[in-house]
Design goal:
heterodimer, A: mainly alpha, Serine Threonine Protein Phosphatase 5, Tetratricopeptide repeat, 2 strands, 63% helix, 1% strand, B: mainly alpha, 12 helices, 81% helix, 0% strand, globular
Chain lengths: 298, 258
């Protein structure tokens, strides 16, 4: 009887109370750790070759684990707007050494590396190296040449190399016809909004991933905003001719009857006139990488 | 041969009775969790990770079973004293060994087939259908089975002359060394030492080369596996098992069982 009472006491009181105490203590510990939050993103083993040996036959699975870790690392930093992405390059190198055929690691990894802060690591040079590694390991995958051409065009503004990359990719019989078109267009015109729009639209349509599509959409909207700014600059010029002075605010163009209302960018933020006299996207607009929030009152 | 078959069937029944196939439940849960979770925390690898995780789990669980059950095949019979009754039946010693090998191999084959079915289910869940190129995954599973056959034969060999603990260490050690066989072969070339190159070369060919059977990455990326490789690996596994079982028979037939 006594032993049954003891068992009942343990089961119904002591163990649940113990877990409740552990729960409370853990929340306290979590609070303490959050206050002394330290970046613990050290990559202890940076050699992909060493890890490949240590993984015995399970290199492919370890590659998936490292890729997931890379995605989580980037996502966490992106969400916290932390600019330091130093571990991103080594993580991608390890992932692609463990599994040289893991195509998403090259493609998405290059985007994460090439994009300027705070969107990415701001290292287009590393992105180029990663894609070139992908080409060496997967010579039949023509889309890598697209990715390479895109980085040269958009981030490095090296239009000659961009055109060469698109041309090289177009030689693959599986490549789509616009690779050749892009090669010719970039060789002839260098940077153009139309080409940029084609490139970003292709990225948007070729992936189902939410993060990548959002980034592509943001850049398409930015292109639209650039067009708007060019148009508004011509109107600023018109105001200058009639008023014999530069406007300091967009509202002055509205008062002069040149504009019916204050124009807004695709995120709803009003355009502003900068100190240089040119129209710019609002400094707090999400198009420039800031968190989405309500536009300022007009 | 009939006596070997009876020993084999009883070995299989004993393994099942030991609830050794309960790991299938764990495997099924793992596959379901992976299928649901991976898409939420990673990008672009849902179909790939199901296959790499599934095949890695099949391989690892199979190796653990092959080693830990295999090293006890002979020693357990000796401890329980059932070996003497068996050999007095009469069951020849080589029939006993062959039966034990076949019984554990049958257990592993059933286990592997069940896990492969679970993996196919998870792939169907993620992809929506199974395609012709998914046959590469079946070939990978077959290669895992061949690898397990070699591990079982090695475990049986060591269990004929040493304790279960040492058998485990020897078998696991040989497995790890076999995975590194290509690297061992390359040692001599890296150091430039001709004598070391020759020794490393011979040693790497004597070791069971488990790297031959590693096509997990190829299967995950749905790359076709050549039929010739399938035939060569089958022959390699059969010959290596025959060598290990022949060695086991030689040792066991001379062993004083008192």
């Amino acid at each position: 009887m006594n032993s049954r009472k003891t068992m009942a006491l343990l089961l119904l009181a002591v163990i649940p109370a113990g877990f409740a105490a552990v729960w409370c203590m853990q929340r306290g510990i979590d609070g303490q750790l959050a206050e002394m939050h330290q970046e613990q993103d050290e990559l202890v083993l940076r050699s992909g070759k060493t890890l490949r040996l240590l993984s015995l036959e399970y290199g492919a699975f370890l590659a998936d684990v490292y890729w997931t870790r890379t995605v989580q690392y980037y996502g966490d930093r992106h969400a916290r707007k932390v600019a330091n992405l130093d571990t991103l390059g080594p993580l991608l190198d390890v992932t692609t050494t463990l599994d040289p055929q893991l195509l998403p690691a090259y493609r998405f990894g290059a985007i994460f590396l090439a994009e300027k802060a705070p969107q990415g690591a701001g290292r287009p040079d590393l992105a180029v190296e990663l894609i070139q590694k992908g080409i060496r390991n997967n010579p039949d995958f023509w889309r890598f040449y697209y990715d390479l051409g895109f980085i040269y065009y958009w981030e490095l503004k090296d239009y000659k190399k961009a055109s060469e990359a698109f041309l090289e990719g177009s030689k693959n019989p599986k490549a789509l016809i616009w690779m050749k078109v892009l090669a010719a267009k970039i060789a002839a015109e260098g940077r153009s909004r139309e080409t940029s729009r084609i490139l970003w639209r292709e990225i948007y349509e070729s992936t189902q991933d939410k993060l990548i599509r959002e980034n592509a959409l943001r850049n398409l909207k930015l292109l639209r905003a650039e067009e708007d700014c060019d148009y508004l600059d011509t109107l600023v010029g018109r105001y200058e001719k009639s008023a014999h002075r530069r406007p300091e605010r967009i509202e002055e163009l509205v008062s002069a009857g040149i504009l019916p209302g204050v124009p807004v960018d695709p995120e709803g933020f009003p355009y502003v006139i900068g100190a240089d006299g040119k129209t710019h996207v609002h400094p707090k607009s999400p198009l420039l990488g800031y968190p989405k929030g309500p536009p300022p009152p007009r | 041969m009939k006596r070997a078959g009876i020993v084999a069937w009883n070995t299989f029944r004993e393994a099942v009775r030991d609830r050794v196939l309960y790991n299938l439940v764990f495997f099924a849960l793992l596959m379901i969790a992976a299928a649901l979770l991976v898409g939420q925390i990673s990008i672009g690898i849902e179909e790939i990770v199901i296959v790499t995780l599934g095949l890695s789990a099949i391989s690892l669980i199979g190796i653990l079973m092959a080693v830990f059950i295999g090293v006890g095949l002979v020693s357990k019979e000796m401890e329980k004293r059932t070996l003497y009754a068996l050999l007095a039946k009469p069951v020849r010693r080589w029939e006993f060994l062959l039966g034990k090998f076949a019984g554990l191999f049958l257990t592993l084959a059933v286990n592997t087939a069940a896990m492969a079915a679970g993996l196919a289910g998870a792939m169907w869940l993620v992809q929506g259908s199974l395609k012709a190129e998914d046959a590469a995954v079946l070939v990978a599973v077959y290669f895992i089975l061949l690898k397990l056959a070699i591990v079982v034969s090695l475990a049986l060999l060591f269990s004929c002359f040493t304790t279960p603990l040492l058998s485990t260490l020897f078998t696991a050690g040989l497995y790890v060394a076999g995975v590194f066989a290509p690297e061992i072969r390359a040692i001599g070339k890296v150091t430039g030492n001709a004598a070391l190159d020759a020794v490393a070369m011979v040693f790497s060919y004597l070791l069971p080369n488990f790297d031959n059977f590693n096509v997990i990455a190829a299967a995950a990326h749905r790359r076709a596996i050549p039929g010739m490789l399938v035939a060569q690996n089958t022959l390699y596994a059969a010959v290596y098992c025959a060598i290990a079982l022949a060695g086991a028979t030689m040792i066991f037939s001379r062993r004083n069982l008192k």
